[in-house]
Amino acid sequence: MGRFLFRLPDIGEGVAEAEIVARAVKIGDHVKEDQPLLDVMTDKATVEMTSPVHGIVVALHGEIGAMMPVGGVLVEFEVEGAGNAGEMPTAVAEPVAQVQPAPKPEPEVVKPAATSPASAPLASPFTRHRAYELGIDLSHVQGSGPAGRIVPADLEAYVQRQNAPAVSGLSRNTAVHDTRIVGLRRKIAEKMQEAKRRIPHFSYIEECDVTELEALRQDVNQNLHAHQPKLTLLPFFMRALVKVLPEFPNINARYEDEDGVLHSFGGVHIGIATQTANGLIVPVVRHAEALNIWDCARELTRVTSAARNGTATRDELSGSTITLSSLGALGGVAATPVINHPEVAIIGPNKIIERPVVHNGQITIRKMMNISSSFDHRIVDGHDAARFIQQLKRLIEHPAIIFMD
Predict the structure, then answer these.
(1) 208 C-beta neighbours (distance < 10 Å), count
(2) Among the options 381, 384, 398, 405, which is catalytic?
(3) Given pLDDT bands bounded at 50, 70 and 90, which one contains residue 196?
(4) Which of the four pLDDT bands, split at 50, 70 and 90, describes residue 96?
(5) Is the CATH number of domain 108-170 3.30.160.670?
(6) Distances (CA, A) of 122 to 134, 137, 157, 160
(7) What is the CATH code of the structural domain delimited by 2-99?
(8) Is the pLDDT of residue 197 over 60?
(9) Catalytic residue at 287?
């Protein structure tokens, strides 16, 4: 029998490390070749690692949430033959402590805070031990004995006061649940933090009358052919962006601030902020300029479905040049969306609200919606952002223009 060390392989695209986000085996399992072992997450995607050998799992390395370098040992097997334990890894990694199943933790007891002898509360050793068992800091207890000495009865009274219901009859909930942020949620947190740290955001919100657009959309959806997908608002926004962005090339762009280079794109690659069970993911509809309204709707459904069911590829999750972020019916009145770094702009349609407005000199009920947007102020001046949104508003309020060459 020999020892086989399964190391994190070179995943490509310059990836130097990956985060362990899930395990499929435990110590003692008999594993077959190609059987799933664990999932790791890089900056690009989650990758399933499968076993290259038959064997018995004898050691696991790295906890869930740990970052492992390429070449780092992930799983050790006992295998038939010599194994590979004596081979040098292609990438030298820092040694990682072997992880064994942890025993079930005992209930935690909060020790009293240490105090100096001069300020320590007066109490007998028995009372101190009892306070330790109850998790009570004696400095919070009022003593009733001689010279303020704390006696056991004082401890019991303290416990009763802490647990007593309020006058309303409602009791306090003092539970605290700790959740370690790992995997996709940690990637989202890191990306949001990086975007806010690096990009000086400024937001611009404009009101739009979408009565005509909604009438058109509802009429089209009621008269669909079998091969035509149902239209939401977003395909109209996608086509409107395609019409407006050529006049604003610095907005359809990615700013690599470390190199000081702004990449302005001819093609319009629209990121679609998508809520999934694991968090916010931004799949990409590529070359929207080459798609008609129906193609936009189909591709929108395809990439967002892939993001939600976890089948989106790396290419489908990268390369956007501008992002649309919509919460639909939950869109609220306005928002200040966070830019999808290294892009320079993000557009967020909000909720449609029917309300009275002045239209053609008369007070009437119209369908109104705000467009919330954020821009990278290093690249986009306020005047240009306002002109861009006003142009977009014109197309949204008069949707026939979207389809005019």
Answers:
(1) 21
(2) 381
(3) very high
(4) very low
(5) no
(6) 17, 12, 17, 21
(7) 2.40.50.100
(8) yes
(9) no
